[in-house]
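Hey Z.,

So I finally got round to the S-adenosylmethionine thing we talked about over coffee. Here's the setup:
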Amino acid sequence: MSSVPAREQLRQRAEYTYKFNAKTGRHGWLRLTPAYSLKIVEELVIGHANAQRVLDPFCGTGTTALCAAYHGHEAVTTDINPFLVWLARAKIARYSPTSIEATRHACRQALDLVADRAVKPVSAPPIFNIERWWSAEALEFLRLLRAAIEHVTQPVTAARNLLLVAFCRTLIEQSNAAFNHQSMSFKGNEEPALLFPIDRGAVFEADVRFVLSGASENPVSAASVVLADSRALRPGLSGPFDLVITSPPYANRMSYIRELRPYMYWLGFLQNGRDAGELDWAAIGGTWGIATSRLTDWERPDKHFRSAHLTDVLRGIAHADNKNGVLLAKYVAKYFDDMWAHFCELPELLASGAELHYIVGNSTFYGTLVSTERLYAEMLSELGFSRIECRPVRKRNSNKQLVEFDVVAQWK
Ligand SMILES: C[S@@+](CC[C@H](N)C(=O)[O-])C[C@H]1O[C@@H](n2cnc3c(N)ncnc32)[C@H](O)[C@@H]1O
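And the result:
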């Protein structure tokens, strides 16, 4: 089923959501999809050419489903974040030449409206300290452009979706956000002043061109993207799947909502900080805003995943010489309880002989190593999976202890 030409077409759409930063040498805009993850997923998909149905229960920006669909497999992917579900659907959809042309036309119309200021700008999104994100000029342009896109396209059309994907690229390119470490930060004041004004319309036009060139090469198969909680998949999904490839959240306190906030506010998926915190609390591994105070009050339920190794890990973190030790031990406990709830969903969705690949990294908290891969392996073994292996994939950074693994298992 796999074919080499699919590679280039696939890469273009995968790159909708990341952009190479020549200065830092890293891939940014959506921190969920580093370039290497596409490579790993691609190798796995190509290596399982006979798989009929592929599942990714942690969709993110849709890398697995996109890859599977370009290589001719039926794919289903789920995520708890409605923005990511929208984005992945837009990335994976098949576009006709007519809709590509309509988008090109709508882009020109929108930019004319912006140039003539012939549309009422949308209100600035309620992002805290918005002036840190965008200069007054950039903000004004984005408000006009956002209104113009709405004016020249109908809701839920290919043209609206494609222009909004391009808008997401443009809004981050025009922001002061830098991607030079784990999460977003703001550029310092050392940025040189510009000699010439930026042609913001040209930036958007280039983004639309980029998005359309990917959209014109369609995946071979269809994929569906479902808004669902991976801890309760069975009501919405029907099996059987014979291949699962996924990269779940890591136990590292990274908040996807925090990283995605600019897009989510601009596109109307978030209205305020409280909603952001609620969504982070609902997601596995979230600890941002209200999620942290919820965690303070959270107690481990009586029925939870039991593991001597996890008990040692939690004790080590809770007794660390740090005032946050107890809170972070709760964080780690909740993370593994949530992942256990997720793994318990799988057996009924899998075909006999189905293979799982969970790409996940370990972490450390106050000197205690959390061997996520080992705990996944314990959980899968308890559920009756066989041929379980934790294959190291890559080192994460200069800390020798931090490694990414492919946790592999087979359903009986
Ligand atoms: C590491 S990211 C996935 C990255 C993905 N491979 C990609 O291509 O971008 C983990 C994803 O899990 C999602 N997630 C967290 N908790 C979830 C839950 N309970 N149910 C479904 N998805 C969840 C997050 O929203 C995030 O998109």
